[in-house]
Design goal:
The complex is a heterodimer of chains A (317) and B (178). Chain A has 317 residues and is an alpha/beta fold. Chain A has 9 helices and 9 strands. In chain A, helix 1 crosses helix 5, helix 2 crosses helix 9 and helix 5 packs across helix 6. The longest helix of chain A is centred in the C-terminal third of the chain and has 20 residues. Chain A is globular and about 55 Å long. Chain B contains 4 helices and 8 strands. Chain B has a 5-stranded parallel sheet. In chain B, strands 1-8-7 form a 3-stranded antiparallel sheet. In chain B, helix 1 crosses helix 2. The longest helix of chain B has 19 residues. The chains are: A alpha/beta (317), B alpha/beta (178). Chains A and B meet through helix 1 of A and strand 4, helix 3 and strand 7 of B.
Chain lengths: 317, 178
């Protein structure tokens, strides 16, 4: 059993398949009168968010609560981080509460990997700078899997600000691992060279996007745009915005949110029946429950000497 | 495998028929549902449900339940495959017969009862098992028993079903290495 989830690269296809099946089981739990199971009772999950987030932090909170874990949420604003405490000191302090898992969101690439060195808890990367956002990619895989049954042979285009997007990197890794063919598309200034080495194609215009089964639009990250990467948002929209004209009737549309309406997506496609954006949000809670379960079940303590052995394949005792 | 067969296919069929008769006798067959515990319990529950429905001449709701998320040892051992549960009828006020293959410590049944209560408030929960091998660690007793099999802790009871194992039988063998 794996301890941390820092990158999609940590996961094999079998791992992802298991997480999908777990998430489907948790989706059934979410349909019950009592949407909560006692699985992680008595264990503590710490949410450590150094960056603004609505859906990731709230869905991790809900996931931990629906598994009956005790939850501590720390946001950088209003915490001792404000007073200049370093990441390492904060993690060491919070580790004194003996958490089973630390969920970390940070503006700096590599932060989650560092935290994993400083704590014995399981560390889940909830987005580290421009590096990765593995649970977002897993919920995107889950959303497509629920809709289509498989990602094998799927033609997927990821469109937009690939350079600043941790979602793009995690999604390319996850989608290709699940057998999809991925193309990243955007202005040359927003596509880093190394993406071709991740096993995807690169396109600089939407001309051939008609071949795609799924168009996955990325958010224009205005808060990360220090330099002039595109002449103007209007020019970007003219070339790369997905609108009613560019979205074919048989194509599905995804977006990790939050959407800049009128920039990467036109309003008419956001509300179209092909859009899976709401389903992606719904998938967030059950997939994060699956990840918490996958990392924490069986990790609590060494089995006592008199424990029964794990069940054999046939028959139950 | 050098296991001793204690029930063969015909014995198992007769056992399930008898249990189904007892269920109808004890419950009257009204407001009744049958829920199997994954995985072999779920297969057996379907057979019991079909038999009971034939006897009372009415459809009887069938469900299945996976108890992985309710185990008392989640923290200490890695989990076998998790299956989704399916309880697609209202459980409020129902008599629910839980079905499992082997009753041993009672911990699985405890977990299944907890899980059922998250779907609503059943009027009664009863327990039917094909084999009761003793060694209870909780105050749980079955309402319907196929066969009592006093065993040593070093032994293992296997209930096999055609749907999953290609054969219907109950055997006792030595415990496999974990």
């Amino acid at each position: 059993m794996r301890k941390n989830l820092i990158s999609i690269d940590d996961l094999t296809r079998a791992d992802i398949d298991r997480i999908l099946a777990l998430a489907a089981s948790f989706a059934e739990v979410s349909g019950r009168e009592i949407k909560k199971v006692p699985t992680l009772r008595g264990r503590t999950v710490i949410n450590l968010f150094y960056e603004a987030s609505t859906r990731t932090s709230s869905s991790f909170e809900l996931a931990a609560k629906r598994l009956s874990a005790d939850l501590v949420s720390v946001k950088s604003v209003g915490s001792s981080v404000d007073k200049g405490e370093s990441l390492k000191d904060t993690v060491l302090t919070l580790s004194a509460y003996d958490p089973a898992a630390v969920v970390i969101r940070s503006p700096h690439a590599g932060a989650a990997g560092l935290v994993a060195r400083w704590t014995t808890a399981s560390v889940i990367n909830a987005g580290d700078g421009k590096h990765e956002h593995p649970t977002q990619a897993l919920l995107d895989v889950y959303t497509l899997w629920r809709r289509l049954g498989t990602l094998d042979g799927l033609n997927l285009w990821i469109v937009g600000d690939v350079l600043h997007s941790r979602v793009a990197r995690s999604c390319v890794l996850a989608f290709t691992r699940m057998g999809a063919e991925v193309t990243v598309c955007g202005p040359p200034t927003l596509i880093p060279r190394e993406f071709e080495q991740l096993g995807c194609r690169v396109a600089y215009s939407l001309d051939d996007a008609g071949e795609a089964d799924v168009l996955y639009a990325l958010r224009m990250q205005r808060e990360r745009m220090a330099g002039a990467y595109v002449p103007s948002l209007r020019e970007y929209a003219a070339n790369y915005q997905i609108d009613g004209r560019r979205l074919g009737a048989g194509q599905l549309l995804m977006h990790p949110g939050p959407v800049n309406r009128g920039v990467e997506l036109a309003s008419e496609v956001i509300d179209s029946p092909q859009a899976l954006i709401t389903q992606q949000v719904e998938s967030g809670v059950v997939v994060r429950m699956a990840v918490l379960y996958e990392l924490l079940a069986g990790s609590g303590a060494p089995a006592p000497a008199d424990a029964e052995p794990a069940p054999a394949p046939i028959g139950a005792a | 495998m050098n296991d001793n067969v204690v029930l063969d296919a015909e014995d198992m069929r007769r056992t399930l028929v008898r249990i189904s008769h007892e269920i109808v006798e004890k419950t009257g067959g009204s407001r009744l549902a049958v829920v199997g515990i994954h995985r072999r319990g779920a297969v057996l529950a379907q057979r019991v449900r079909d038999l009971v429905a034939d006897l009372v001449g009415e459809p009887i709701p069938l469900g299945d339940i996976d108890i992985s998320f309710y185990r008392d040892d989640v923290a200490i051992r890695s989990q076998p495959t998790v299956h989704a549960s399916h309880i697609e009828f209202p459980v409020d006020g129902m008599t629910i017969v839980l079905v499992d293959d082997v009753l041993y410590t009672g911990r699985t049944v405890r977990a299944a009862i907890d899980a059922l209560f998250d779907y609503g408030r059943p009027a009664r929960i009863q327990l039917a098992v094909v084999a009761d091998r003793g060694h209870r660690e909780l105050p749980i007793r079955p309402d319907y028993v196929g066969k009592n099999l006093p065993t040593a802790a070093s032994e293992r009871v296997f209930v096999r079903v055609t749907e999953l194992d290609g054969v219907d039988e109950v055997t006792i063998g030595e415990r496999m290495a974990a």
